[in-house]
Amino acid sequence: MTDSSSDEDNEIWVYYKNREEWKDLRPIPQDDGPTPVVAIAYSQKFTDIYDFFRAVVNAGEKSERALALTADAITMNPANYTVWQYRREILKALNKDLHQELKYIGEKIKENSKNYQVWRHRQIIVEWMGEPDEELALTAAILAQDAKNYHAWQHRQWVISTYNVLLHSDRGLQDPRVIQWCEQLYNTGCTSPHLLAYLIDVAIESGEASGLERALQMCKDLATSYDRIRRTYWDYVARGIVQSQEKTNEVNHTASASPNEISPDTNQPEVTDGNLSEISTPVSATPT
């Protein structure tokens, strides 16, 4: 029995139960019990694939054909945790090339960019490899299509915090390429809390008065409109910015005053170039 109704490449689909190379394995039907609450009408193709997947798991088989079977199962249901987990076990058992797996999961993410399991699999493979080089470009491509994609923002934040990718240069958060890209997103109307938190950090790190004013406004926007569930947190960040402004103003006033205007106070720390940044640096907006 074959099926070609849903295949994008128009190739004739051969059911696993009709494939000679799978004759040695008896498929295991899904058991929903004698009186299932809801009987789901699975397609014949879905049933065929998952019956053989259950048989493979039951046999503990970790082979090339089992790996190919997981790919078919994922195509039918990319949200199935068990399939992804077993695929990872096969990858380890066969010592597969993880660069090829990154390419594979990259395609799956493009097809299912709002699916948690595809991003989780990507994260685990990156952890195994210890190579996050492609992740910012991938998330940038996904966010260019949907600037509010929560999973893409989460993955991007994970990469940055885990591998310090923004700190590979001395510019850190002030990398012009990163700032420009995020500003473009913001100007298109994206109000993701992750994006605004980054722009607040950029403004804080710059130390410029206009930037701090902008950061305060963003904190207000987050607290009242875009991230109200964490209103208390954004109010706290805003207070830190205000305190930083006040300390900076005091330091600037002291530095510009004439010697006769300064009253000696042995209880106050001496302001030097070495501790000026320490005095004026406020709390980061990015949650830990």
From TrEMBL:
Pfam families: PPTA (PF01239)
Disordered: annotated segments: 247-288
UniProt keyword annotation of Transferase present: yes
SUPFAM superfamilies tied to this protein: Protein prenylyltransferase
Enzyme class: transferase
Domain of life of the native organism: Eukaryota
InterPro entries, sorted: Prenyl_trans_a
Enzyme Commission code: 2.5.1.58, 2.5.1.59
Cofactor(s), by name: Mg(2+)
GO cellular component: CAAX-protein geranylgeranyltransferase complex; protein farnesyltransferase complex
One MF term in the entry's GO annotations: CAAX-protein geranylgeranyltransferase activity
Spans traversing the lipid bilayer: none
Transmembrane listed as a keyword: no
Keywords linked to the UniProt accession: Magnesium, Prenyltransferase, Repeat, Transferase
Membership in a protein family: Belongs to the protein prenyltransferase subunit alpha family.
Protein name, entry field: Protein farnesyltransferase/geranylgeranyltransferase type-1 subunit alpha
Lineage: Eukaryota, Metazoa, Ecdysozoa, Arthropoda, Hexapoda
